[in-house]
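Anyone opening a protein record will find just a pair of labelled lines. The record below illustrates this layout.
***
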Amino acid sequence: MSDTMKGFISDLTKAFSTGVSYMMPTVVVGGICLALSLAGGDATAGKGMVVTNPFLQNLGIIGSAGFSMMIPVLSGYIAYSLAGKPGITPGMITGFIANTPIGENHVQTGFLGAMLMGILCGFLARWVKKWKVGDTVKTIMPILIIPIVTTVIISMVYIYILVGPIGIAMSWLITILSGMQGGSALVLGLILGAMAAFDMGGPVNKTATAFTLALMAEGIYGPNGAYRIAVAVPPLGIALSTFISRRKWGADDRRMGSSAAFMGLIGITEGAIPFAVKSLKTVVPSIMIGSAVGAGLGMIHGVECMVPHGGLIVIAAVNKAPLWYAVDMAVGVIVTAICLHLLRPNIEKEQ
């Protein structure tokens, strides 16, 4: 491997680590506040968890704000690691755009899009910093020229080049999924589970959500039950892994395990994102397998969830096979933890 490639990989590794370390507090604050808020809510058919207590509603606002900040902070500090302070603003703005529905198909690329935006902003801002300019212009480069040039170029690349193909792909996925009912129930469950875990709230996850909501509108609740099992598996499986496979995780990750468990119980798949960013090749396959197993079992057992929310917190809204809802989720969690144990090296070896 050439020195240039080694340097590129080193820069990316450092950038992802930096982005995660700054993102973690927003995940913890947002996740715990949202968990406490939803814990006091009631499962309502067609509406998910409804919180009526004013104090808990305000906690929910805080939690939602934390989750809204999570993706832009990740992107912003990835760019910061690559380009310094001039990269923060472009990274955060483009990360926000990546996490916002855009275009006719309402494309939202989530954390994967934000990671890409952070990388592109970081490298472009780093290049713009090297421009040879006069002393007068040099003083405004970090606060004006670099942020504006970087933000506008990367945002336009995303909006005009990336969003269209992604939207077409999402529409195609919905069409394919719509034809997989009846005898394909198990296969449908496996696919929905894998989609739920693949990007943890990103476009693939949102496509599965849209599909299950569309079926709910037609009075078909089985796929929603399977999907709601799947969304809770990634954070719960990782939390279990940090507890039983302690040599596979660093001290920071083990501390984050408790927060991930909170979020898994209330069906917040994004609780797995900080772990996935650090190690996509071990975390993403593990959670996809676990979620697919849990959702596939849910389809076999005829689990039906009446609300558009997941996790154990909505078990009261499972009108068919609520016991299997919990059991299938537990199986998916255990499968995820086993996969992580097999795929991840001991932390001493990794270092």
Summary: Residues 76 and 190 are 34 Å apart (CA to CA).
